[in-house]
Design goal:
heterodimer; A: mainly beta; six-stranded mixed beta sheet; about 55% strand; rod-shaped; B: alpha+beta; 4 helices; 4 strands; about 35% helix
Chain lengths: ~350, ~80
């Protein structure tokens, strides 16, 4: 039997299921060949394949007791002339296919019929080829601006797994999300206040609840933990560069008709003034004078303060001074009592604390 | 951002080769061909001939899907 255009064995990628070679693309040809050498010289020596008759092919899949004849209606094979069989079938690694061939030849010298059989097995070796890469839908360092996030803002962080150039179906992967706590990574649960959802290959976080969290996602292909890969990433609350100042909005010049002085805090970033800075900062208004040893009094909290003009006094040598102390705030922190989270109507009670630098 | 793990990546390849190469390998009767006279061979077919040599003589590397599109799907009905 001549085996042409391939071999009886092939390989199969254990992950993609692709065959190498794929016989539906490059088929295997099994061509019976009858070669005769007659020592008596009655028959001319040479190939007599064209004289083969009653050529029959049979197949039996692994585990099948029954051997089925391959007919022309079988789309996995093409039966050609003189017993040639074109095999388009790819045998699964766990299901080798046995092929049987039988034919006959009539010896014209004495009209005896000789029968000949052949048996072969289409087998497949399963291979796993791994060139795993894991990609996050964001950078590994994620600064979160407090000016764009609040408790309701969410952000989805997704993982794409590739084997070589091919994107791997998340269902074929095992994902583990973890959080760095007390010196080691621990499994991330959805009980963390900053977690909206932990999905298969993604998490949805609420950045408004994050001061600094170190997270990590680990991935391996199901059944192949040897090729485990992980990516750590960090999310933190970042105010960026900012500066503050207090401006006298009203009552800058004390005249008899001026009864009030309004001092207002301004916080500026590279992008300009922040509207409603009291939403993001703890602002404490201070009043004092240029007198030696003058006390610094806290006169208000918030964006602006209105005080009576009389606070400036009447002594022209005493200059009133307004000032502010501006502090960044922590992320939202869940209030607990006795270790239990406090809720009102099912909603978590949160607080923010001024950060001391 | 991505992390990478590598181990013996196997990529199944096919080759569209000029008729002269398919002739030399005696595979013209057993392999599909397109209208341009190119024959579809497996990497093990071409290995015998020499992959570098075949490429130098005009063979083109194809992925399985490219091979199916060029030699099978495009030839349906022909």
């Amino acid at each position: 039997m001549d085996v042409l255009g391939g071999s009886l064995s092939q390989a199969q990628d254990g992950l993609s299921g692709d065959f190498d070679p794929d016989r539906s693309i490059v088929p295997l040809i099994l061509k019976p060949r009858l070669q005769i050498t007659d020592p008596d010289g009655v028959l001319e020596s040479g190939e007599y394949s064209e004289y083969l008759i009653d050529c029959r092919w049979y197949e039996a899949s692994n585990g099948d007791d029954e051997t089925k004849r391959i007919l022309s209606s079988n789309t996995n094979y093409i039966i050609g002339d003189y017993g040639q069989l074109t095999v388009l079938k790819n045998a699964e690694a766990d299901a080798p296919v046995s092929l049987f061939f039988s034919c006959a030849w009539i010896d014209k010298r004495n009209n005896n019929t000789f029968r000949k059989t052949w048996q072969g097995t289409l087998s497949t070796e399963k291979r796993v080829s791994v060139n795993l890469s894991v990609e996050l839908s964001c950078a590994q360092k994620i600064p979160v601006s407090p000016f764009r996030t609040d408790g309701d803002t969410t952000r989805k962080i997704e993982v794409t797994v590739r084997n070589g150039d091919e994107v791997v179906d998340p269902k074929k992967c095992n994902f583990s999300w973890s959080i760095f706590d007390a010196g080691q990574y621990e499994q991330l649960g959805d009980d963390q206040p900053f977690i909206e959802e932990v999905g298969t290959n993604y998490i949805i976080i609420k950045p408004g609840y994050i001061d600094l969290e170190r997270l990590m996602v680990g991935v391996y292909l199901t059944g192949y933990p040897k090729y485990y890969k992980d990516i750590p990433f960090k999310v933190w609350r970042d105010y960026g560069n900012w500066s503050d100042e207090v401006r006298i909005e009203r009552g800058k010049f004390i005249r008899p008709d001026v009864t009030e002085i309004e001092a207002k805090a301004y916080v500026t970033t590279r992008r300009g003034n922040i509207a409603d800075p009291q939403n993001y900062f703890d602002i404490t208004h201070i009043f004092t004078t240029n007198e030696k040893g003058a006390a610094q009094k806290v006169i208000a909290y918030g964006e602006s303060v209105v005080v009576p003009a009389s606070i400036a006094g009447t002594d022209p040598n005493v200059i009133p001074v307004f000032g502010i102390i501006t502090q960044e705030r922590t992320a939202l922190r869940v209030v607990t009592i006795g270790g239990k989270k406090v809720t009102i109507d099912g909603s978590l009670v949160c607080m923010q604390i001024p950060k001391t630098t | 951002m991505y992390a990478n793990s590598k181990d013996n990546m196997i990529q199944t390849k096919y080759y569209a080769v000029p008729k002269s190469i398919a002739d030399a390998l005696c595979l013209t009767k057993y392999r599909k061909h397109d209208d341009g006279g190119y024959y579809l061979l497996s990497s093990s077919d071409v290995y015998v001939y020499g992959i570098d040599r075949a490429i130098a003589e005009g063979a083109v590397v194809l992925t399985p899907s490219e091979a199916k599109l060029r030699f099978i799907i495009n030839n349906i009905g022909k």
